[in-house]
Design brief:
Shape: globular
Largest sheet: 4 strands, mixed
Number of strands: 9
Structural class: alpha+beta
Order of helices and strands: HEHEEHEEEEEEHH
């Protein structure tokens, strides 16, 4: 174990507001894990942030500080994924949508119901959910590992005991149907 792995962490949980009832128990479990983590010496602070199911990437986001924060967070997640060789899709998706009636197009970011970011100082060291090769990394399993104190490595693979919140094999048609029903 390196000294860097022993440095205290800051944990930031992002959760969807107004999520469907089926996501409720996962939200509750995640919040319970955060309560547990607050008592750990290895955790400096925990915070909870809220985001929606999706948002449009537009210049107007600068007028809405929370959207600007989400945009900066997603950019940091993408840099982390590129640096570590992890994959954030299908949990985080960015798609260009063409409106058939107005000939407009816009970029929409779809966000997961739960996401976890871990920092050591200002350095982002872990994001869940994500993929490590073919292994999904689950938010609840990561929180549990942090609570047990055995999440010293930057990645913990999902153990398969819970159903994931996405299907890695989903198609563009699935995404298009989701976008049409969400917007």
């Amino acid at each position: 174990m390196t000294d860097q792995n022993r440095e205290p962490r800051t944990v930031e949980l992002w959760m969807r507001s107004f999520a469907p009832t089926t996501a409720g128990p996962n939200h509750e479990r995640a919040l319970e894990w955060l309560d547990e983590l607050e008592s750990h010496d290895s955790i400096v602070s925990v915070s909870v942030r809220v985001w929606g199911a999706a948002f449009e990437r537009t210049a107007h986001r600068r007028r809405v500080p929370e959207l600007e924060r989400i945009e900066r967070t997603l950019a940091a997640f993408e840099r982390w994924a590129a640096r570590t060789g992890r994959d954030l899709e299908p949990f985080f998706r960015t798609r260009r949508v063409d409106a058939t009636f107005t000939d407009d197009s816009f970029v929409v970011c779809r966000l997961p119901t739960l996401a976890l970011a871990e920092y050591r100082g200002d350095d982002l060291v872990h994001v869940a959910p994500s993929y490590d090769g073919d292994r999904p990394i689950d938010v609840l399993d990561r929180l549990e590992a942090l609570d047990r104190g055995d999440a010293v490595e930057p990645v913990l693979a999902y153990d398969g005991s819970r159903s994931g919140e996405s299907d890695r094999g989903s198609t563009d048609d699935d995404e298009r149907r989701w976008l049409e029903s969400s917007l």
